[in-house]
Amino acid sequence: MVTAPMIQDLHHIGVAVKSLDEALPRWVDGFGLRLDVVEEVPTERVKVAILFAGRTRIELLEPTADDSPIAKFLTKRGEGVHHLAFKVDDTGAVIRVLTEHGAPMLDDAPRPGAHGTKCAFVHPKWLGGVLAEIVQDPEEAAR
Ligand code: ZN
Predict the structure, then answer these.
(1) 1 CB contacts (<8 Å, ≥6 apart)?
(2) 14 Cα–ligand 1 center, Å
(3) Where are the domains positioned within the chain?
(4) What's the whole-number mean pLDDT along residues 5-24?
């Protein structure tokens, strides 16, 4: 069993938006965050805009299909903070440890996320309503 701290840092904050075209000017031009990239994650059926507030990464998530998890979230809860993502160096190992601790994992195995990452989600009922993501960066995996 892994006893060392598994979580290295906050990786990003995921925010659900109806439209990146509407949201981006406010976050970038108005609020002054730096836009890094906009990309599609077909497995999640979302378009992701990656922004930086200093070193803190914010991901705006726009659904690209009605059955996207983000589309369902928007219908149920409206726009707003969707999840907190935590940086780890081995998503597979962290999934095993969390499962040992009884965490209700939404993913039994790492899946591809934005920007070549490997990620997995923990059901929000485990952390008082907060949907948590664990993320492994591609460069970390190659090290
Ligand atoms: Zn995320």
Answers:
(1) 97, 100
(2) 5
(3) 9-141
(4) 94
Does 70 have pLDDT greater than 50? yes
Q: Ion ligand 1 — residues with CB under 5 Å?
A: 14, 85, 133
Rounded to the nearest angstrom, the distance between the alpha carbon of 59 and the centre of ligand 1 is 7
Rg (CA), the chain: 15
For residue 131, how far is its CA from the centre of ligand 1 (angstroms)? Answer: 10
In sequence order, the 6+-apart residues with CB closer than 8 A to the CB of 140 are 89
CA of 2 to the centre of ligand 1 (A): 24
Q: What pTM, to 2 d.p., does this model score?
A: 0.89
115 falls in which pLDDT band (50, 70, 90)?
Answer: confident
Question: Is the confidence at residue 116, as pLDDT, over 90?
Answer: no
Ligand 1 centre distance from Cα of residue 47 (Å): 12
CB atoms within 10 A of CB 18: 14
- Whether residue 142 is predicted with pLDDT greater than 60 in this model: the reply is no
Going by CATH, does the domain composed of 9-141 fall within 1.20.272.10?
A: no
* Two structure tokens written together for 139: 């460069």
